[in-house]
Design a protein that fits this description.
Oligomer: single chain
Mean pLDDT: 94
Keywords: Membrane, Transmembrane, Transmembrane helix
Largest sheet: none
Protein name: DUF3995 domain-containing protein
Number of helices: 7
Radius of gyration: 16 Å
Shape: elongated
Strand content: under 5%
Helix content: over 70%
Order of helices and strands: HHHHHHH
Distance between the termini: 19 Å
Number of strands: 0
Structural class: mainly alpha
Low-confidence stretches: none
Organism: Marilutibacter alkalisoli
């Protein structure tokens, strides 16, 4: 009997893990990376000043993305079924898609982020969300 793993959820796991690594890279490589990804000059200056907040927030985001990667691998059938896999994959997919389309209202809460940051990160979130959505639809009956 051959076990078929879902390629879209495997890709979704890889995308989330890559995003987590990029966030960790910001912590390791400092203000220039924060500036490169468009996190805003104020944020980069906080990093340069040694403030704890940017690293804490970035670490939390990286941890969440790594957990999301594990859930995608679980849904894909590569690792054991994690608790509430169906619900969590729906939530992950929804967050990615909502973040992709709701960036305009979010801009008011993060005025230091550049427009290229908003457009690029929204396009990336849309891609991630669509990949997860396709994979989720394909494995839905098995979850």
């Amino acid at each position: 009997m051959t076990i078929k793993h879902n390629p879209f959820l495997i890709a979704g796991a890889a995308l989330s893990a890559t995003a987590a690594l990029l966030h960790l890279g910001c912590i390791v490589f400092g203000p220039s990376w924060y500036r490169f990804v468009g996190a805003g000059e104020e944020f980069a200056q906080m990093v340069a000043a040694g403030h704890w907040y940017p690293a804490a927030l970035t670490s939390a985001i990286a941890a969440i993305l790594l957990v999301w990667s594990l859930y995608a691998l679980s849904g894909a059938g590569l690792i054991r079924r994690l608790p509430f896999t169906r619900f969590v994959l729906c939530a992950i997919t929804s967050v990615y898609l909502l973040r992709a389309v709701a960036f305009v209202p979010l801009m008011a809460y993060f005025p230091g982020n550049s427009m290229p940051f908003w457009l690029t990160s929204s396009a990336i979130c849309l891609l991630f969300g669509v990949v997860h959505l396709i994979g989720l639809r394909q494995v839905w009956p098995k979850l």
